[in-house]
């Protein structure tokens, strides 16, 4: 029972940062129409912001997280301007360009910080003990709270504001949106900033809890792909739900079997969804 | 007559080429030769309009199969290489059932998932795949002599000659296929699948055929690699290698037979020789990434479009 | 004797909408048969069911007594029923000759092993001959090296027919073959269709151009709102009160 509860807590934690990353990826895909292969490296950039600001400059953690959000958001703007806008009629080109960007980011991280794992001093040592064997480190709780707050804010932003309306319209039908007087460039910039920023903040928040290294983006991008496929490409709600499902399945399989079996299970789940319903469990729009 | 002359000069150049290179450059030449087969086989699949992210894993299937055939069953290495290709092709036929329910972007992601699952299975099952450490001590190609030349496969030059011959034969077959009515049908499936179907083309069968052939040759490339380096593991065939194949094809262009080969040669020489010689060891991925971005931005139709422009300009004057 | 091509109680529903509702008619061998009706009558849906593009919700399409409904398009094609498409659906990136060669896929099935070794010379020559014949028939042989995408609209429509004709069909299903043609092109195309019929090819066509259809068809089936309305020769149809009512009513409805 304790094991079950503890694994459940781990799953909630995993779901929260995965959904931050996946929602960003879906947002970018929806508005830009490209799969951002460099999304894992945006996450990595967020983590290194914390390495620099928090552990090297010794500034408060929250400052480091804020810098991570802004810095990675600006990286997103850079990608939009330099890569995706010129390549907007060439989806395969966008993919290649994002892979090139990924390689540049990894190389910059290795050159700036070295390939070794970074040690980041813990933000808090405090642990909430539900029982002797069910524990939740406070730093993990922060990630969970941050994810819930951010995703709620994003949801309200998308549903209630004019910008959000424009963003959703542009994601559904760019041409019709343009006819409605929505500036596609403007919405693209906002989507890239938010999408990248979410990856950055996920990286910043989890930096003290994971091993920070230049190649940390790889496993994250695979997970994010699985989640956005299962959730239905282009569906934000689907991405969140799929993150939760994936986190639960993966965490439990890891606990009761091992990590490799868990990865195989996750990928098989995605393949199964692709076979049965290629538009994802929650997707309806056909954007191939 | 002119073609024969070009052929003789080309063959002579390819034979003498390794003698001008250092040992490590000769090794790179062997990899380059194998990679040319890999990327050319990839192009055959792209003829039908599908882009896979599992091609390198399929290559790995050929490598694993051939390594195991020679190691566990004691098969003669050339036979096991051929069988490696056949296993890869058969696996592709099997994979086509789930994968060809998808198209375009979904096929891309689906092939990625299928490839990763295969890779994880190699990792998980220590028997017979050797787990994360892979297979070591793969039998090398047995030495032999053809009178004028003694093949000693500890020398990269020998392996280069052997693989160059095998790759040339494979490329010839791929070329014949592309120039045949089958190749025309692949094009038809790509550009207007509905019209092709209305002309009686079984779309699934032709997509599967292209996938199987392309996988078979990728498998042979993998087997050639395995018997050269002697050790393979799941990470030898990970998505980073796939990224290289993808960029060779896209930077070179897939409109012509030579496009991907050109991309492979230019980028390999640039990455492995020029940047290394210039002493940019750590910055290599950075420069490589920048080149990828610049070429896709300013040369979206690939290197082949530059070549075509030069040829047509020549034809005019 | 079994009917050559028979549509029997064919029905197609998309969600709650019934596009075609219990439609039945027969096409005799060697005739030019027209399928007409006001906009939204379900002509194209019917056409797509016969060619295997859609699987009907219920009902059958029978060719020489064999049920072919629900077969895939290439399976229908292999039974001799070959369709053309609306607009200019062609292999725009391939040459006119290559387009026609794709059309010869069925009579000269490619064999990969023979192709590699080079033992398919006869087939390749046969296919080229058949493709040339089809191009010549539609007056396109002088354009055979041009890219299909560069042809004029009328030539593209003709090439679409040539691709279908190259496969030696028994039945050609033509989806609005006269759309976008000028009167002269239309006249030539009608002439070619009569020639096709005289060569023993049965033609079923869907068309808006009333003039062409009345002058060309041996028999006409008119449908309205997914249902059978009337059938007969051009004269009967032209004077059929239900048809006139449907077209006038339909016109008012559309406006």
Structure description:
The complex is a heterotrimer of chains A (288), B (317) and C (255). Helices cover 74% and strands 2% of the residues of chain A. Chain A is built from eleven helices and two strands. Chain A has helices at 2-32, 39-56, 61-84, 91-113, 138-160, 162-172, 174-179, 184-206, 217-231, 236-256, 259-276; strands at 127-129, 135-137. In chain B, strand 1 and strand 2 (150-151) form a beta hairpin. Chain B is mostly helical and 317 residues long. Chain B contains 14 helices and two strands; from the N terminus they run ααααααββαααααααα. Chain C is an alpha/beta fold. Helix content of chain C is 40%, strand content 23%. In chain C, strand 4 and strand 5 form a beta hairpin. Chain B binds chain C through residues 173, 176-177, 180-182, 184-185, 187-188, 191-192, 194-203, 209, 213, and chain C through 51, 53, 72-74, 77-78, 82-85, 89-94, 98, 101-103, 105-106, 108, 110-112, 115-116, 118, 120, 123-124, 127, 163-164, 167.
Sheet with most strands of chain B: 2 strands, antiparallel
What are the secondary-structure elements of chain B, in order, as H or E? HHHHHHEEHHHHHHHH
Number of strands of chain A: 2
Q: Residue-averaged pLDDT of chain B, rounded?
A: 91
Give the strand content of chain A: under 5%
The proportion of residues forming helix of chain B, as a percent range, comes to: over 70%
Class inferred from helices and paired strands of chain B: mainly alpha
How are the strands of the biggest sheet of chain A laid out side by side?
1-2
**If strands are numbered along the chain, what order do they take across the biggest sheet of chain B?**
1-2
Beta content of chain B: under 5%
How many helices of chain B? The count is: 14
Top keywords for this entry?
heterotrimer, A: 288 residues, mainly alpha, two-stranded antiparallel sheet, 74% helix, globular, C: 255 residues, alpha/beta, 4-stranded antiparallel beta sheet
Concise description?
The complex is a heterotrimer of chains A (288), B (317) and C (255). Chain A is mostly helical and 288 residues long. Chain A is 74% helix and 2% strand.
């Amino acid at each position: 029972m304790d094991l079950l509860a503890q694994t459940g807590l781990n799953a909630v934690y995993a779901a929260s940062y995965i959904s931050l990353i996946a929602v960003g990826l879906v947002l970018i895909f929806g508005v830009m129409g490209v799969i951002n292969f460099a999304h894992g490296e945006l996450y990595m950039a967020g983590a290194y912001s914390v390495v620099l600001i928090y552990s090297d400059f010794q500034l408060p953690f929250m400052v480091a997280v804020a810098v991570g959000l802004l810095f990675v958001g600006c990286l997103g703007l850079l990608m939009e301007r330099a890569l995706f806008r010129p390549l907007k009629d060439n989806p395969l080109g966008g993919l290649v360009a994002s892979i090139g960007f990924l390689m540049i980011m990894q190389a910059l991280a290795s050159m700036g910080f070295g390939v070794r794992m970074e040690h980041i001093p813990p933000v808090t040592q405090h642990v909430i003990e539900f029982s002797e064997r069910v524990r939740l480190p406070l730093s993990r709780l922060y990630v969970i709270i941050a994810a819930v707050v951010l995703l709620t804010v994003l949801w309200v932003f998308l549903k209630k504001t004019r910008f959000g309306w424009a963003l959703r319209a542009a994601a559904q039908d760019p041409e019709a949106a343009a006819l409605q007087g929505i500036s596609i460039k403007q919405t693209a910039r906002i989507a890239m900033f938010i999408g990248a920023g979410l990856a950055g903040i996920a990286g910043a928040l989890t930096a003290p809890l994971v091993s920070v290294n230049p190649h940390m983006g790889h496993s994250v991008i695979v997970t994010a792909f699985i989640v956005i496929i299962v959730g239905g490409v282009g569906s934000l709600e689907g991405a969140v739900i799929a993150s939760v499902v994936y986190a639960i399945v993966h965490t439990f399989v890891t606990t009761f079997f091992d990590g490799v079996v868990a990865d195989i299970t996750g990928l098989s789940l995605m393949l199964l969804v692709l076979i049965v319903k290629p538009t994802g469990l929650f997707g309806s729009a056909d954007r191939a | 007559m002119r073609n024969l002359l070009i052929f003789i000069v080309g063959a002579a150049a390819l034979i003498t080429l390794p003698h001008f290179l250092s040992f490590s450059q000769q090794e790179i030449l062997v990899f380059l030769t194998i990679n040319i087969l890999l990327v050319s086989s990839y192009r055959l699949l792209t003829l039908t309009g599908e882009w896979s992210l599992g091609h390198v894993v399929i290559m790995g299937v050929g490598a694993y199969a051939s390594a195991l055939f020679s190691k566990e069953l004691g098969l003669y290495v050339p036979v096991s290489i051929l069988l490696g290709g056949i296993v890869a092709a058969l696996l592709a036929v099997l994979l086509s059932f789930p994968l060809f329910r998808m198209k375009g972007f979904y096929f891309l992601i689906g092939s990625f998932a299928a490839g990763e699952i295969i890779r994880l299975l190699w990792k998980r099952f220590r028997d017979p795949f050797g787990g994360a450490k892979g297979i070591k001590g793969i039998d090398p190609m047995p030495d032999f002599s053809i009178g004028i030349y003694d093949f000693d496969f500890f020398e990269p030059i020998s392996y280069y000659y052997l693989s160059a011959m095998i790759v040339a034969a494979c490329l010839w077959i791929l070329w014949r296929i592309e120039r045949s009515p089958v190749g025309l049908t692949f094009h038809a499936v790509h550009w207007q699948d509905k019209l092709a179907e209305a002309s009686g083309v079984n779309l699934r069968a032709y997509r599967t055929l292209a996938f199987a052939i392309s996988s078979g040759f990728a498998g042979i490339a993998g087997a050639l690699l395995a018997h050269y380096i002697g050790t393979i593991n799941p990470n030898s065939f990970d998505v980073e290698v796939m990224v290289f194949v993808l960029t060779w094809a896209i930077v070179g262009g897939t409109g012509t037979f030579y496009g991907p080969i050109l991309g492979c040669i230019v980028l390999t020489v640039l990455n492995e020789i020029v940047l290394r010689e210039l002493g940019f060891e750590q910055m290599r991925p950075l420069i490589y990434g920048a080149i990828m971005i610049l070429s896709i931005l300013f040369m979206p139709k690939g290197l082949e479009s530059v070549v075509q422009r030069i040829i047509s300009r020549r034809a005019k004057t | 004797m079994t009917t050559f091509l028979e549509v029997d109680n064919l029905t197609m529903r998309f969600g709650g909408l019934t596009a075609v509702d219990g439609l039945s008619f027969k096409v005799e061998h060697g005739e030019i048969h027209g399928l007409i009706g006001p906009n939204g009558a379900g002509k194209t849906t019917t056409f797509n069911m016969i060619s295997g593009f859609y699987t009907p919700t219920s009902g059958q399409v029978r060719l020489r007594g064999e049920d072919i409904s629900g077969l895939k398009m290439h399976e229908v094609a292999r039974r001799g029923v070959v369709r053309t498409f609306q607009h200019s659906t062609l292999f725009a990136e391939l040459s006119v000759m290559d387009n026609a060669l794709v059309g010869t896929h069925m009579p000269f099935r490619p064999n990969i092993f023979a192709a590699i070794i080079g033992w398919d010379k006869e087939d390749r020559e046969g296919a080229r001959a058949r493709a040339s014949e089809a191009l010549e028939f539609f007056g396109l042989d002088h354009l055979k090296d041009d890219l299909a995408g560069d042809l004029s609209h009328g030539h593209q429509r003709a090439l679409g027919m040539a691709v279908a004709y190259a496969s030696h069909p028994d039945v050609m299903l033509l989806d609005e073959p006269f759309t976008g043609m000028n009167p002269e092109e239309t006249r030539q195309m009608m002439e070619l269709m009569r020639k096709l019929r005289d060569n023993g090819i049965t033609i079923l066509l869907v068309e808006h151009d009333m003039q062409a259809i009345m002058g060309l068809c041996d028999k006409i089936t008119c449908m309205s709102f997914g249902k059978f309305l009337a059938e007969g020769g051009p004269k009967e149809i032209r004077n059929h009160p239900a048809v006139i009512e449907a077209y006038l009513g339909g016109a008012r409805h559309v406006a």
